[in-house]
Backbone:
């Protein structure tokens, strides 16, 4: 069984550039989560989709960040323009949920390590 | 507010030592509790969980008991191995409010 797939695994870019991170959830899962992990702030939930609809985006840091889920098998997280403080590991996770409620086990992808110079 | 508090790391142990990583929570309602593990360079994986008071979750020799009276979910293992070196995250799920909270993580280093 393929797990959650994220690409790229590593990204190095310069300040001001647009960055797009991609995620393919586990087939059959209807919930998708984007997290950011840094040493200073730990693991932060950025946004949560259920059935392709954003349910909770209160963790999205600012307008430079946007996330989409055009279909059940693909999501993107975009940063435009990127800044050095966006450097972090970004994780995508998926799970099964009903009625927009979290289910208990989230399956994480391997993460994208982003470095903004 | 609702939160999870873990002991700060890193925790350094010798192989075969006993492990305890403390986790306490503050929550409205009746949460489910989890331990996730993150090995170097990987994403988080569910290690174990407990869904109600007095439940014990267990997996790979790790155990944790949901203690409502002390609002705790401490992770234990009787004999750690070098391969257990990882970061461990305590988490809670508030079903009524549809909120999932992770602790800050505790890094475990096990030396041969």
Residues:
């Amino acid at each position: 069984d393929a797990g959650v797939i994220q690409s790229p695994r590593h990204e190095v870019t310069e300040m001001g550039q647009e960055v797009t991170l991609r995620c393919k959830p586990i087939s059959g899962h209807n919930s998708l989560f984007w997290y950011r992990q840094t040493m200073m702030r730990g693991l932060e939930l950025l946004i949560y989709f259920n059935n392709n609809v954003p349910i909770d985006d209160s963790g999205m840091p600012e307008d430079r960040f946007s996330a989409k889920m055009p279909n059940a098998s693909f999501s993107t997280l975009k940063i435009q323009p990127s800044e050095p403080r966006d450097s972090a590991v970004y994780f995508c996770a998926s799970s099964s949920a009903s009625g927009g409620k979290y289910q208990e086990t989230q399956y994480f992808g391997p993460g994208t390590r982003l470095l903004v110079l | 507010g609702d939160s999870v508090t873990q002991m700060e790391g890193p925790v350094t142990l010798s192989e075969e030592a006993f492990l305890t990583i403390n986790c306490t929570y503050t929550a409205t309602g009746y949460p489910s509790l989890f331990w996730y593990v993150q090995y170097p360079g990987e994403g988080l994986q569910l290690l174990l969980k407990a869904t109600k008071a007095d439940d014990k979750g267990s997996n790979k020799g790790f155990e944790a008991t949901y203690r409502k009276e002390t609002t705790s979910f401490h992770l234990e293992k009787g004999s750690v191995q070098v391969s257990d070196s990882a970061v461990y995250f305590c988490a809670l799920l508030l079903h009524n409010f549809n909120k999932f909270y992770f602790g800050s993580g505790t890094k475990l280093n096990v030396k041969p």
Remarks:
- Residues 43 and 87 of chain B are 10 Å apart (CA to CA).
- Chain B has a mean pLDDT of 92.
- The two ends of chain B are 41 Å apart (CA to CA).
